[in-house]
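for the record, two folds in this file. i put them one after another cuz i was lazy. first one right below, seq on top, structure tokens after. the second one comes after a little note so u can tell where it starts
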Amino acid sequence: MNSNCNPNPRSDTDKVTIPTSSVSCHLAILSWNIHDGMNGSEGLKADDTDFIDHLSDCNVFCLQETKREFQIPNYKCFNQLRPDSRSGGLCIGIHRAMADIVKVISTKHDDIQAISLIPDPNCPGDIYTIINIYDSPENSSYKAKRKGLNS
């Protein structure tokens, strides 16, 4: 085991070093149900500078109800859309400076998305798992359809 590894869990005040940088930083994660990839009649939220500014304050963002694929400048976006559906949709965005430390975790569910951040492969205790989940409302047509398939 690497002697630089800390086997104890990190506290809120600990910092994470981004691999391409010698500077430590806080790992900032944003989770946001955006209710749609569109911004009313104004077009895609991905083109809205206020929306992008909110996301840009974070190293990692998790979006729910995207309903389409997202690509955000300076981020590697992992999109997961429901097959044959115009509802739901998930996106985890990782700042490009951290893209090399990401491992996508396969899930069996359309509404669960997961990744691991592995800052140092020689330090197996320093793995951060981020899970992005969208739970449809009980009265949604998607949930009713899923219940019908399982009965």
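(here's the note) second protein begins now
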Amino acid sequence: MIQIPLGRKGRAIVYAPAMLYHNLRGRDLGRDGSIQGYPISAREKELEELFPTPSPDGYVWLSLQPGYGGNDYITIDATKLDPANLRYTGQSEGFIIHKGSIPANAITLRRSNKWEGLLMKSTEFLTELKLPKNHWELIISNNDKEELGTDLVSLVQTAYSNTPQGSFVNSIRDVIPSDWNVIDWDDDPDVDSCVFYRSNRGSESWTGYKIQGLGHDGARISKDKAINKTRELLSRPGIWIESSDAMRHLLKKLSIPVVTDEQFLQQLFTDPNLTMIGDDLYSRVLPNGNRISETVFGDPKLK
């Protein structure tokens, strides 16, 4: 077992297995055989706050189980890592984040699925995910998320192409942490609409599910299905969303219940400086320093 510090100051510790795992997801090792760090996505910038100082060399995600996200995984001897560079992310999957690259001497085994791919191609037709027509399906398996990942990324990018921030789902790695409701309503076999959400990350004050966004292929019917699914989900206890811009105006037009209790919202986001600024909008500052003005819709529940 190894000891992993908790939080920015690292005064408390938790225990984890000495062997951890990393999936390269198509990336190569560095010239020195190390696992190169990579930047944190914009929507996970708060994870940098787990360390006293940010890393100029990026970060590496580690899991407690082999094969998370595929068979091209690396086994890592965590006893050869500096505990000061490790933190639990607090995500439900039990991820651990490593600050900076992981040296080659910590790698004990690499299992590649390249040879397995040759065999898989002959049996792909047996294992390909088949979606029923015009029926919403919940996708929670990582294998299914990976198989549909290209479609899901494209749908979300299409839906947010005209927003100021654009899409925050730009790779299959961004797909994995969420659960996805998907539907294929037309003649082709691809997903046409989706709505995705997540549970709390352990340290957050709420329980239930937070809708993160939706996606569609640009067709009017696909847009309507994604919007109607979002409205249906928001009618359930414990499901909520924070929105701005066009999505906010649409949800208000649909008369989705809004949360305007300033004290409740301060507890929801663990932010005593959050303030209501009128028209059901609140203002708060994100861990990265950006100030946002949004509205919470639905029925969030505190722990």
